[in-house]
Amino acid sequence: MCACRQDKRSGLAPGNFAPSFSLENIDGTRQSLSDYRGEVVLLNFFASWCEPCVKEAAALQGLQAHFEHRGFTVLGIAVDDKKDRVLEFKRRFGISFPILLDNESVAQRSYKSTGFPESFLLDAQGAMLMLNDVFSRTWGDRVGAPPTTEERPEGKDERSRGQPHQQKDKQ
Fold this sequence. Notes:
Blueprint: E1 2-3, E2 22-25, E3 30-32, E4 40-46, H1 51-67, E5 72-79, H2 83-93, E6 99-102, H3 106-110, E7 118-122, E8 128-132, H4 139-142
Parallel strand pairs: 4-5, 5-6
Antiparallel strand pairs: 1-8, 2-3, 2-6, 4-7, 7-8
């Protein structure tokens, strides 16, 4: 699901500061990414007409509901979408997280996003922690699912989930 290395298409990598942007939310108020400084942010580029985006919407709302009181927010970026369709999408899935409109693809270009859904996990200072590309499974497929054998670091059990993977020196 997530890449812990540089994305070859975008040049973005964990540890880089996330590109800043300022967009209108669905209420017409201008918001910047910096408004969320101090919170861990899951930045999610989506479109209401995108089938994988529809599939992950409930899972993203579940993440928001579960972690919003712990300094976490999902920040939806609706790209190439009409405001009324985004409002219907929000209503349909009971979305409480903020959604910004990127009809001119300003943020999408900054992140070199090439499809939907695409997500970036940012730490409280605005640095990228993880990237989720459009060719991997959606966050919704992963919420609550234990890692597969291929994903589990060698010699680690379930108690190590969520811990940074340390590559062992080969001798």
